[in-house]
Amino acid sequence: xxxxxxxxxxxxxxxxxxxxxxxxxxxxxxxxxxxxxxxxxxxxxxxxxxxxxxxxxxxxxxxxxxxxxxxxxxxxxxxxxxxxxxxxxxxxxxxxxxxxxxxxxxxxxxxxxxxxxxxxxxxxxxxxxxxxxxxxxxxxxxxxxxxxxxxxxxxxxxxxxxxxxxxxxxxxxxxxxxxxxxxxxxxxxxxxxxxxxxxxxxxxxxxxxxxxxxxxxxxxxxxxxxxxxxxxxxxxxxxxxxxxxxxxxxxxxxxxxxxxxxxxxxxxxxxxxxxxxxxxxxxxxxxxxxxxxxxxxxxxxxxxxxxxxxxxxxxxxxxxxxxxxxxxxxxxxxxxxxxxxxxxxxxxxxxxxxxxxxxxxxxxxxxxxxxxxxxxxxxxxxxxxxxxxxxxxxxxxxxxxxxxxxxxxxxxxxxxxxxxxxxxxxxxxxxxxxxxxxxx
Length: 440
Known about the structure:
Layout: H1 2-10, H2 12-45, E1 50-56, E2 67-69, E3 74-75, E4 83-84, E5 87-88, E6 90-96, E7 114-119, E8 126-131, E9 136-137, E10 168-176, H3 214-238, H4 245-272, H5 281-291, E11 295-304, E12 310-318, H6 331-349, H7 356-372, E13 375-377, E14 395-402, E15 416-422, H8 423-428, E16 435-438
Antiparallel strand pairs: 1-10, 1-13, 2-6, 2-10, 3-9, 4-5, 6-7, 7-8, 11-12, 14-15, 15-16
């Protein structure tokens, strides 16, 4: 490619030599830039200056907090909703400057008022407002149509539950040194606090896995029915294949079991359907518990053997036992995701909306996630960014936001969004020239 371009410019005779020289210079520039970037990042990470960790508060309600991620801002009446080229921006977070550690940013910047942070829904261009005075909740465009909203940004078929992302109160804590583990955006490496979901057994006889409103009950019924129908259809389809006698006998034994499981489910579903219109926790819990004993007839077509007979594995287990991944989708994954989403919105609005068993389980999950999805200010970002930062540069890290399933942020390939500000601007309290970068 390089040689073809240079050939157009200089002719074929000079192209080979010129392309080698050009490639050498290009490679030298890349290596030198990478080395300078690595040195800059190392200096920033070795700094002894304090930074601030911004951690979602769990459990709720929060008695005290220093701001919030997501939801809606509180603005003075004379402040217009920010926009860029006519496009209203989407609200990200609001922070109480008086709650920040005194010595972050080398003591620069204001310590009165609030910072309200907004982003362009597509370009991610930031606008940061320093506001003071009487604050009132301000309605504005929701975040869920933004390209960086998660999970809808990665699943266009899934409609958002509401226009705004959930609103999480945050606590501020001073921190010195590199950010705590895990490295990068990945979860699961915080010492002494493993992901509680790894030890979960989604037993529907346990109220901690039960739905809590009409929508989550509908999600449960939809997910279970889909699995049972798919399992029966798979058996019916496999019986059309060329099978050895023992395989056909096993499939024929499982076929009525799959039908009976669907019939039994239909009876329970009929009893539960009225509660998808008007939810009642007591009777729903009793009926949902009955689903746990339903059999799931799992089959998996592997291949045809050398004589053309289908090689099939099969197992009958309860609905709540995790199947072989090759047996097809598990009802729990879809239900767990929708339960998680609905629970976040309910919890951040009215924590008591979750019944006690579910609330305790979800709070344990969110406490784990809060450790891995905390924002930061004045820190050395985890991951790789080219924008100069650190005490030896002109730029300070104003804010860093990780990809967060709790709040609904997905930055780039699931890393972090970092906002930078010139130190002279920060010293004047001028937030009009904030720039951004995304880690990788």
